[in-house]
Amino acid sequence: MAARGRTRWWLLAAVLAVPALVLVWVVVTVVRAATSDYPLGGAPEKVSCAQALKFGGGKLPKKAYDTRCTVQSWMDTTYDAEFRMPRTDVRAWLSDTYPYGPKPGTDLCDPGADLCVNMDSAETPPPPGAHADAVTVNITYEGPDRALVRFSAFTV
After folding, report:
1. Which of 33, 36, 113, 131 shows a CA-CA span of 20 to 30 A to 106?
2. What is the pLDDT of residues 22-70, one digit of tens each?
3. Is residue 105 a contact partner of residue 114, using CB atoms and an 8 Å limit?
4. In whole angstroms, what is the distance from residue 60 CA to residue 94 CA?
5. Cα separation of 38 and 43, whole Å?
6. Apex 33 CA angle, 40 and 154, nearest 5
7. CA-to-CA dists, residue 22 to 18, 25, 29, angstroms
8. What is the DSSP-derived secondary structure letter of residue 89?
């Protein structure tokens, strides 16, 4: 038992440390949220392009190159793929990949795209077996021999 008149400093220090630690935690959390592009998680991660296109019911063209593919998932899941392919093979690849999809056109394309396919409604849904609720494919011709394909498949 402590002598009369003596304070238990360790007990007082512990009681005062709890609010200080909570304050430090709050400050760190606020700073992290303010400086992060993904404060709640779900940053893009690299994946194989075969996996990305399969999510949208497609297949990577045999002559594709310069491939870059990612998945981003938090509340929804989005697979993005970007690759180049021979320009002359674009329409054949689209018709083989999405035989029951809409015809490639120029309506509702991303800015700068020369051709696109959008499967994002009840009239034009993604193909059977796709895990995505919507699929968009935008093609930009980069000269007479090459096309840049930007593919996105996502849930909503």
Report:
1. 131
2. 888 888 877 777 776 666 666 778 999 999 999 999 999 999 999 999 9
3. no
4. 10
5. 6
6. 30
7. 6, 5, 11
8. G
Tell me the C-alpha distance between 65 and 60, whole Å: 10
Q: Is 153 helix (H, G, I), strand (E, B) or coil?
A: strand
Residue 79, beta-bridge partner list: 71, 153
Token pair of 19 as six digits? 């609010």
Contact 135, 111 (CB under 8 A): no
Q: Which amino acid appears at position 35 of this protein?
A: T
Residue appearing with tokens 């630690």: 21
Contacts of 86 (CB under 8 A, 6+ apart): 63, 145, 146, 147
Going from N- to C-terminal start, the domains of the chain cover: 7-36, 45-154
Lowest-pLDDT range of 32-36, 83-87, 133-137, 140-144: 32-36
Amino acid at 46: K
